[in-house]
Design brief:
about 525 residues, OB fold (Dihydrolipoamide Acetyltransferase, E2P), 5-stranded mixed barrel, about 40% strand, disordered N terminus
């Protein structure tokens, strides 16, 4: 009886491969091929896979565990694995889930690159020059390709999922270079195109505040930015756009204007709210007393909020009876509660004129009773000008001491030569004109008029001895006798002269009309 010939191991391996291929289908199957199967058993070390052959395959159990060590599959699950090695009928078929995933990932990435598509991945750490990204296989994201704007720190990206474009792919070398920047620009371009195709005036859109400037905020509408100007944010007054919005705020706006040529979008927020001026009719009748809050100043007045979105203007001339007010902030403060009189209400032009001084007693009506002409008044010098000084008498209006009323003889060039701001002086009331709001005072009338004595005793060329009483910018003021003073002009005054010096002088000029009584040193 003939002895059967035993097949060699190589022959058995080929036969197993043939039978395996027949059971998997017509596709050519071999080591390194992807096959599908079901999990039939889970052991501490392996997952046993039925791939439709008389022998089952096995995959190391670790390939089915997540980062926390938890199993991610159950018995009965269908999976795709890589056929690593076909064993004989006494052994198991070696399979790999990890290598199958990598192989499929490469195939997917190649297809995405060919179609100029987008791939999702998780940034897993920092590497030299950029970041490492898991897209099924490990890929490289250069630092210059992380964002459309320069990036200062990379740590905030680690562990997060993003979308990328594939810049380079070399399967043989296992090299992949990604760009998040290109993906963002591509998606923004698509979004912008969609927005521009559908945008129209009057449309209400949701957006995200992208940037805050002094004149408004830029809103990302999903691929295109629109400008919300500060004047279109609120019906009321806004000091700065940052008072209402910050970068990253969600906002709902309406399209006011779309410039298709320049692709510029103007947005409005207040237009989505009811215009408060539609409710003003009859609310602020002329002559009524109202209360409000000071919200801002200009050089010409103060704005007072009467109700949300409604403001009235108090002109600087209507703040106080004192005409010398230079700026509203000298009399009012922001956020101050005030009471005012409505002087005019122009709804068509959205203007309400207010007055504050009308609720105060008009000092001009009682000034003549308080300070009759010829009476004396004491006050503080509030301001000095070329033509005189203003005296605050504590009654709400300032009195003017004209330069001609400072002294009987003008032995000075400028009022500040003899007086200074803040000085307390006494003066005589010489004229009150309520209609033109003039309150005239005099210093010289507190003294006797010396011109009669000067005219009779001091002719031009006459000699006299006097004492230097004062030195100013014009020269030295010399007292010849009580109430009689003359000016020794600076050009004729000794450089070493000082107050208290005795000097021998001659009268050079006597001009009562021009109030000049000039002296010179006697030779």
């Amino acid at each position: 009886m003939p002895v059967p010939i035993q097949p060699t191991e190589k022959q058995m391996h080929s036969e197993f491969a043939r039978l395996f291929q027949e059971q998997q289908g017509e596709t050519e199957i071999g080591e390194g091929s992807l096959v599908k199967g079901h999990i039939v058993q889970l052991t501490p070390d392996y997952a046993i896979i039925d791939i439709g052959f008389k022998s089952e395959g096995q995959v190391p159990i670790r390939e089915f565990k997540d980062s926390k060590g938890q199993l991610t599959v159950n018995i009965g699950d269908e999976i795709e694995v890589l056929l690593e090695n076909i064993e004989d009928d006494q052994g198991m078929i070696a399979l790999s889930k990890e290598r199958a995933d990598v192989l499929k990932a490469w195939d997917t990435l190649v297809k995405i690159q060919e179609e100029d598509g987008i791939v999702e991945g998780v940034i897993i750490g920092k590497v030299k020059g950029g970041l490492a990204v898991d897209v099924g296989v490990k890929a490289f994201l250069p630092g210059s390709q992380i964002d459309v704007r320069p990036v200062r720190t990379l740590d905030k990206f680690i562990g997060k999922k993003f979308r990328f474009k594939i810049l380079k792919l070399n399967k043989r070398r296992g090299n992949i270079v990604l760009s998040r920047k290109d993906a963002m620009e591509k998606e923004q371009g698509q979004l912008k195109e969609n927005v521009l195709q559908n945008i129209k005036e009057g449309q209400v859109l949701d957006g995200l505040v992208k940037n805050v400037t002094d004149y408004g905020v830029f809103v990302d509408l999903g691929g295109i930015d629109g400008l919300l100007h500060v004047t279109d944010m609120s019906w009321g007054r806004i000091h700065h756009p940052s008072d209402m919005f910050g970068v990253g705020d969600n906002i709902r706006v309406t399209v006011l204007k779309y410039d298709e040529t320049n692709q510029r979008v103007s947005l409005g927020l207040k237009q989505l709210l009811e215009d408060p001026w539609t409710q003003v009719e009859g609310k602020f009748p002329v002559g009524s007393r109202i209360k409000g809050k000071v919200v801002s100043f200009t050089d010409y007045g103060a704005f007072v909020e009467l109700s949300p979105g409604i403001e009235g203007l108090v002109h600087i001339s209507e703040i106080t009876w004192n005409k010398k007010l230079k700026h509203p902030s000298q009399a009012l403060t922001v956020a101050q509660e005030v009471e005012a009189i409505v002087m005019d209400c122009d709804i068509a032009n959205r203007r309400i004129a207010l007055g504050l001084k009308q609720l105060q007693a008009n000092p001009w009506n009682t000034l003549e009773q308080q300070f009759p002409v010829g009476s004396k008044v004491k006050g503080t010098i509030r301001n000095i000008t070329d033509f005189g000084v203003f005296l605050d008498c504590g009654v709400g209006v300032d009195g003017l001491i004209h330069i001609s009323d400072l002294d009987w003889a003008q032995n000075f060039t400028h009022p500040q030569d003899v007086l200074k701001k803040g000085d307390t002086v006494e003066a005589v009331v010489v004229h009150i004109d309520p209609e033109n709001e003039r309150f005239s005072l005099s210093l010289k009338q507190l003294k006797d008029n010396p011109w009669d004595l000067i005219s009779s005793s001091y002719n031009e060329g006459s000699s006299a001895e006097g004492t230097i009483k004062q030195i100013n910018a014009s020269g030295a003021v010399v007292e010849l006798e009580e109430t009689v003073e003359g000016l020794l002009p600076k050009a004729k005054c000794p450089k070493e002269a000082k107050v208290g010096d005795k000097v021998n002088v001659m009268v050079q000029t006597v001009d009562q009309e021009a109030r000049k009584f000039h002296l010179k040193l006697k030779e």
